[in-house]
Task: inverse folding
């Protein structure tokens, strides 16, 4: 689609603004303009390359990390103009983010993108935000005050040896700021065409001589997306959230923290539900779906005289989802002990133990979903060990493994080995071999989903059928874990103290991937129709609704391979550019001829896996600090076509201009998705969500901090 006239106008304004050469800079709110002008370009780059902890559970330079790791900083979040964590993840090379409606995203990396994407492990301050219902993430409740996020560390590739099962294709670790770094008050509020109204307030103070705290409240009301014809999809989203965090030191130098959040939200997703009476899909609109919950996290870290330390962390999480189709209530309690020891100059050993208890209650509200059992308790026992071995000043070897026992597949082992060659302080080459597992979920083992209309009437294999052809999927409690063996090699270099370059190549081999396979016999409420040799509902005037009965099996293998490139260029003290590009290839195979749906009119499992994700993605981001505390930022991103979802390739532009008044007040205007009036980013059939499209939007924001 061609850029609109106002987008071309913005491009012209941008071109005229980059011409001046006598410019000031103030990219960090904690550093004055004059302070930044005194820094070298090398020092400016260092400000934007923080240490990371997600790769090896210990602090290390990003340059030396033996993994494909990318860091989204707090400045990236604020200057990109994103209003949610899923939108921020679009910055990450290789990360594929597609929005399905106002509050639902499909997010994955290195393939397998879907609304039920289940090969990413996501943590927020050490709390695993994982749903055992589908082994994925409920992104609509993973939120916090964005100004309080210190950074988001994203590992592309397996991290299961340290973080556990389901850290197959990546780990997203969201880390919020220490309470000492959020002192005083902060108010953020605004409105716009899609962000109809939003506001947040946070205040931080001291707790005695050694402690700090902050508390916040935020709320928003987001407009729904658009139907294909441009009308409002009426899937508005509102959410209220409040929380606090406290950090303090004890008299003996130990560190402790306590934090909690509560939330309550409502959405109105556009749904398509099969009606057994009329034998046709009903469209459900303006039907509220309520969600609420909260969590409490506590941690204690004690340092020893020899430099070692141990950490004890625990959390409790409550989640309630009142969907039109079913109700889910889940309680999770998690306890983890971690100990770092330094037995010699050449070894840095970290080991730990963990226990997680999950209790949930699932109740179906329609005949289309059957859950057994409705109540369930699962336990997860885990242990891990890692040894970082310094072979020489240039070479380091890291060996690690995690050992788990879960209630789905029993005992599992997930090892990892990485080798780092520090060619110089500015050059690092690393190699990694790792295994990871995705354990079966409740929906894959214990749920029957029916009424999934997968063919248009004109494509029906039974001539004259006026009702949709339906798919029924039954869980299989005999499933094994999906398995990954991954090989990666990466190289990083800093050129001329101005340019950072990072490239990663990978090859992943998957075994025992889930496939849809024929299930003998018909389910209840259906009969076998000998005239079509299939199961059918009723007659509906002599024209039955055909149902294909399927189940899951570990019936597929797949290979994925790709290349990911990132560059950070501090072009001048006032202008920073970042570019990344990713290529992904997927080849899938059936394990044997019996491990596939035999009906030829169903798309094959192999085709589904190979076409779920885009082959090519790219990002260009620019941050410009102009005279008199003006800021101009833009973000162009490209997403290749999604063949299975029948979504065309697109290029999107986000644009932000801001003005600061003194040190405390900032006013900004952000435009999003400016190349298209609206566009489809994803489409699927299994969830019943209606087809809605992302719209061009603008919003105005006022932020005051003191």
Result:
């Amino acid at each position: 689609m061609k850029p609109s006239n106002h987008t071309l106008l913005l491009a012209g304004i941008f071109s005229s603004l980059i011409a001046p050469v006598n410019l000031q800079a103030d990219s960090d709110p904690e550093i004055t303009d004059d302070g930044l002008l005194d820094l070298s370009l090398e020092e400016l780059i260092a400000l934007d390359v923080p240490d990371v902890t997600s790769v090896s559970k210990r602090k290390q330079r990003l340059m030396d990390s033996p993994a494909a790791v990318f860091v989204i900083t707090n400045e990236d979040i604020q200057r990109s103009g994103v209003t949610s964590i899923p939108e921020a993840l679009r910055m990450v090379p290789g990360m594929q983010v597609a929005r399905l409606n106002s509050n639902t995203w499909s997010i994955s990396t290195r393939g397998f993108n879907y609304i039920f994407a289940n090969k990413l492990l996501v943590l927020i301050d050490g709390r695993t935000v994982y749903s055992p219902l589908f082994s994925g993430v409920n992104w609509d409740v993973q939120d916090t005050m964005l100004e309080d996020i210190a950074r988001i560390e994203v590992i592309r590739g397996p991290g299961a040896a340290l973080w556990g099962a389901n850290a197959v294709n990546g780990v997203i670790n969201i880390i919020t700021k220490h309470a000492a770094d959020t002192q005083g008050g902060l108010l953020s509020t605004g409105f716009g065409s899609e962000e109809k109204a939003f506001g947040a307030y946070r205040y931080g103070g001291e707790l005695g001589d050694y402690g700090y705290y902050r508390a916040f409240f935020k709320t928003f009301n987001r407009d729904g997306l658009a139907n294909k014809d441009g009308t409002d999809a009426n899937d508005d989203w509102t959410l209220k959230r409040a929380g606090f965090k406290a950090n303090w030191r004890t008299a003996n130098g130990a560190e402790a923290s306590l934090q909690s959040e509560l939330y309550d939200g409502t959405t109105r997703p556009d749904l398509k539900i099969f009606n057994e009476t009329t034998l046709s899909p009903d469209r459900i609109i303006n039907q509220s779906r309520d969600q609420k919950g909260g969590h409490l996290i506590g941690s204690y870290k004690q340092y020893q005289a020899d430099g070692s330390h141990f950490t004890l962390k625990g959390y409790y999480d409550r989640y309630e989802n009142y969907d039109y189709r079913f109700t889910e209530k889940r309680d999770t309690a998690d306890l983890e002990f971690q100990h770092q020891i330094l037995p010699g100059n050449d070894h840095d050993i970290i080991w730990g133990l963990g226990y997680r208890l999950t209790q949930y209650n699932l109740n179906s509200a329609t005949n289309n979903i059957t859950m057994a059992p409705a109540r369930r308790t699962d336990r997860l026992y885990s242990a891990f060990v890692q040894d970082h071995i310094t072979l020489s000043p240039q070479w380091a070897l890291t060996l690690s493994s995690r050992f788990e026992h879960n209630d789905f597949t029993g005992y599992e082992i997930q090892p990892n080995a990485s080798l780092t060659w520090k060619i110089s302080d500015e050059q690092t080459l690393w190699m990694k071999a790792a295994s990871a597992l995705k354990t079966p979920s409740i929906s894959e083992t214990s749920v029957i989903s029916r009424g999934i209309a997968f063919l248009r009437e004109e494509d029906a294999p039974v001539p004259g059928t006026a009702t949709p052809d339906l798919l029924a999927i039954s869980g299989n409690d005999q499933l094994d874990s999906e398995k990954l063996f991954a090989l990666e090699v990466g190289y990083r270099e800093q050129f001329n103290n101005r340019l950072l370059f990072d490239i990663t190549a990978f090859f992943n081999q998957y075994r025992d991937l889930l496939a849809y396979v024929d299930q003998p016999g018909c389910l209840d409420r259906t009969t076998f129709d000998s005239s079509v040799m299939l199961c059918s509902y009723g007659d509906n005037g002599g024209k039955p609704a055909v149902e294909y009965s399927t189940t899951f099996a570990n019936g597929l293998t797949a290979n994925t391979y790709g290349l990911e490139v990132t560059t950070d260029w501090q072009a001048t003290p006032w202008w920073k550019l970042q570019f990344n590009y990713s290529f992904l290839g997927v080849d899938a195979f059936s394990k044997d001829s019996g491990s596939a749906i035999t009906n030829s009119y169903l798309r094959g499992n192999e085709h589904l896996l190979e076409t779920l994700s885009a082959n090519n993605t790219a990002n260009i981001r620019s941050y410009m600090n102009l005279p008199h505390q003006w800021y101009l930022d833009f973000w162009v991103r490209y997403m290749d076509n999604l063949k299975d979802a029948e979504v065309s390739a697109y290029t999107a532009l986000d644009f932000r201009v801001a003005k600061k008044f003194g040190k405390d007040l900032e006013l900004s205007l952000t435009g999003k998705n400016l190349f298209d009036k609206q566009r489809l980013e994803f489409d699927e059939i299994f969830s019943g969500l209606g087809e809605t499209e992302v719209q061009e939007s603008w919003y105005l924001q006022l932020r005051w901090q003191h």
Remarks:
- The two ends are 44 Å apart (CA to CA).
